[in-house]
Amino acid sequence: MTRRLVDDPPQITVATTGIGFRGWMEAAEGWGLAEELRDTLGSTRMLARGPKAKGAIRAAELREEWSPASASSAEVLDHLLAEGVEGVRIAVQLHGATTEWEPVPDFCEVLRMAGADVVPVPVYRWVPPDDRTPMDRLIEGIVTAGLDCVTFTSAPAVASLLMRAKETGLLEAVLHAFRTRVLPACVGPITAAPLEELGVTTSMPGRARLGALARHVAEELPRRANRIQAAGHNLSVRGGCVVVDGQVRQLAPAPMALMRSLARQPGRVVSREDLLAALPGGGDDTHAVETAIARLRAGLGTPKAIQTVVKRGYRLALDPAERIDNPHPEPAGPAGRQPSPAHSAGLGARREMPSRGFGGRPVPEVPPAGAAPRRPGSPSAVNGAARPAMAPTVAGNGVARPVSAAEAQPNGAVRQPGGAVRQPGGAVRQPDSAVRQPGGMVRQPKGAVRQSFPARSFGPAGSAGPARGVW
User: Fold this and answer.
1) Average pLDDT over residues 303-332
2) 2-121 architecture in CATH?
3) Start and end of every OmpR/PhoB-type domain (predicted)?
4) Residue by residue, what is the 3-state secondary structure of 89-141?
5) Which residue has the higher pLDDT, 216 or 354?
6) What confidence tier does 73 reach under pLDDT thresholds 50, 70, 90?
7) Which of 7, 251, 265, 409 is least surrounded by CB atoms within 10 angstroms?
8) How confident is the model at residue 102 (pLDDT cuts 50, 70, 90)?
9) Which residues contact 463 (CB under 8 A, 6 or more apart)?
10) 51-59 helix and 18-31 helix, angle to the nearest 10 degrees
11) CB 226 within 8 Å of CB 236
12) SS3 at position 427
């Protein structure tokens, strides 16, 4: 083919790839045709598809006439068709192969249909590797999210990966991983085209250069890292390791798989069955989960970051500021029972319920200590009926007499001989007469009043002490 071009030079030469054009010139050097080929190409109009092809042309001491800003074969084709190619002899250095994953139509065939005399120059071709094991490991790492990012430098490389994934039945799993957890970074839009056609959003640098791609990945991955505050430590979950307080912790596949499962919903409980399904190799023995959790805690160096939830599973022990609301909260008590307001309000809260005396009859609440005393004519503590106010008196030897200041008790209560206390409205509490029932209920004798405010009780010797507020 090179001899044919030297003998019958083309009018236009299209260089599609840098590696292909350099390989062509090196092969011509071995055949002893390097000088003749360089002179022949120098007499033609040279078009370079992209910056790499342009660099290869200039490295051969030649000069391109035009190169598209998009580095796209489609734009080169449009440029040629716009100026007319009927009867024009065009040499096209091929880029290797056209596959089902590359959306660009056959470059040479379109030119032929437009009337051009096309001379294809197949410098190299893409073939599957003899050893598929590295490719299969790469696909497994993508599917299991063992990788944070995969870089692509050419469209044929993308096509090769997709073809192998299709052969192994993992194409949809690979595409799902690229759409969610694994970043596909491409050197430029041409490389990204096969993935974009399949609905995968790719990431690429502003300039189609390998150095720019490396810088782009170094800047992009830290922004995508999953950062978690757990047990007072900063955790950043990566594809194959966990960064703990800035220190990289390499983990074996089994504990790393569990860490990814726990970090997928930080703070949520993950059952042993779900963690077992996430382990490499599967199995049906949940003891494997316990072993992997122990290895995970040891590998992190922060055992408290992984919390055991008895009879349920495991979760990341998020710091309070990092906790997230659970849209589907688990009931705190028995099945079907809602948590009490005291649990909802936090420690120190109490449940507001109507007070009931002996026999289950409602008893109105008594004002707290320090509140204004009940006014004359107001409802009494029994059945809410109004009765006249009674002046405080104390009975001694069956004779009533006015109460002295020393005998007057808070809230209008009057101490009786033997420790009995007369309440406003006539209710009397007798010492040792109340019986506490299981569960905290208090049974009072008939006619007694149950009150719910802090008060003071008096023992037989007249000593005062704090009471629980139930009389």
Assistant:
1) 72
2) 3-Layer(aba) Sandwich (3.40)
3) 225-318
4) EEEEECCCCCCCCCCCCCHHHHHHHCCCEEEEECCCCCCCCCCCHHHHHHHHH
5) 216
6) confident
7) 7
8) low
9) none
10) 30
11) yes
12) coil
Asked if residue 132 lies in contact with residue 164, where contact means CB atoms within 8 angstroms, the answer is yes
| pLDDT tens digit sequence for 355-383 | 444 444 444 545 555 555 555 444 444 44
Please enumerate in sequence order all residues whose Cβ is within 8 A of that of 353, keeping only pairs 6 or more positions apart, or say none.
none
Start-to-end Cα distance in the chain: 112
* Cβ contact 231:321 at 8 Å: no
- Which residues belong to CATH 3.40.50.10090 in the chain? 2-121, 133-224
Nearest to 8 by CA among 40, 42, 31: 40
Spatial separation of the C-alpha atoms in residues 28 and 106, rounded to whole Å? 26
Identify each DSSP E strand in 196-246 by its residue range.
226-230, 233-237, 241-244
Spell out the CATH class of 133-224: alpha beta
Cα 224 from Cα 228, distance rounded (Å): 13
Encode burial over 71-87: b for 16+ CB neighbours within 10 A, e otherwise.
Answer: bbbbebbeebeeeebee
Comma-separated ranges of CATH 1.10.10.10 domains in the chain: 226-320
**pLDDT (mean) for 451-463:** 45
Q: Say whether domain 226-320 belongs to CATH 1.20.1330.10.
A: no
In whole angstroms, give the CA distance from residue 460 to residue 420.
9
> Of the ranges 242-251, 348-357, 360-369, which one carries the lowest mean pLDDT score?
348-357
Residue 76's identity, in one-letter code, is: V
In this prediction, residues 270-291 reach a mean pLDDT of: 88
Angle at 107 between CA 103 and CA 112, to 5 degrees: 140
Contacts of 214 (CB under 8 A, 6+ apart): none
Q: Cα angle vertex 271, ends 265, 276, to 5°?
A: 105
- 47, amino acid identity: L
